[in-house]
């Protein structure tokens, strides 16, 4: 089944590195990015057009964000982001211990990719969210999934 331009795939490779750099395929690295991520806080580029309080976007953000304050939102997409391996494990542990019994699901293995995928698909299938988020739906999928898992980013404008 296809969902249009949702750009997430779920690989099952074992990640041994301490920090993971996530990039989209259209990014070109001219010089190595400075890793200011910590084991408890990833770093990502702040996209000026991902504003959770924008009157056109706010209703969809509120609909899919499970936190208390949708105005305090990390406006990062999945690229570029540097995240510590332990944070990916945090997402895995959330899924594996989820009361829904998803612990036997392959989602346990895919860490943050599965909630990112699931959220991106939910946004794509919601007519209003798909309309207002448009070509950045998958970026919102990452941000909302991370925020719903309690993952907060250091947002840097100069990271890209």
Helix segment tally: 5
Radius of gyration: 15 Å
Q: State mean pLDDT (0 to 100 scale).
A: 81
The helix/strand series, from N terminus to C terminus, equals EEHEHHHHE
Specify the helix fraction band. Answer: 25-40%
| DSSP strand content | 5-15%
Provide a quick synopsis of the model.
The chain is α+β, with helices and mostly antiparallel strands and 160 residues long. It has helices spanning 58-64, 85-96, 113-125, 127-133, 137-148; strands spanning 19-22, 43-46, 76-84, 154-156.
How is the topology of this model organized?
Elements: E1 19-22, E2 43-46, H1 58-64, E3 76-84, H2 85-96, H3 113-125, H4 127-133, H5 137-148, E4 154-156
Parallel strand pairs: 2-4
Antiparallel strand pairs: 1-3, 2-3
Helix pairs in contact: 3-5
Structure characteristics:
160 residues; disordered N terminus; alpha+beta; 32% helix; 4 strands; single chain
């Amino acid at each position: 089944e296809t969902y249009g331009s949702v750009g997430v795939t779920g690989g099952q490779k074992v990640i041994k590195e301490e920090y993971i750099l996530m990039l989209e395929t259209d990014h070109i690295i001219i010089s190595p990015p400075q890793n200011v991520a910590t084991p408890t806080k990833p770093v990502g580029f702040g996209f000026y057009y991902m504003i959770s309080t924008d009157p056109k976007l706010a209703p969809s953000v509120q609909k899919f964000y499970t936190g208390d304050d949708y105005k305090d939102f990390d406006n990062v997409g999945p690229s570029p982001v540097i995240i510590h391996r332990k944070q990916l494990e945090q997402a895995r542990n959330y899924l594996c211990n989820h009361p829904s019994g998803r612990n036997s699901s392959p989602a346990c293995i895919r860490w943050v990719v599965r909630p990112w995928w699931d959220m991106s698909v939910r946004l794509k299938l919601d007519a209003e969210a798909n309309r207002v988020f448009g070509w950045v739906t998958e970026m919102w999928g990452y941000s909302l999934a991370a925020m719903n898992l309690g993952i907060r980013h250091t947002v840097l404008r100069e990271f890209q």
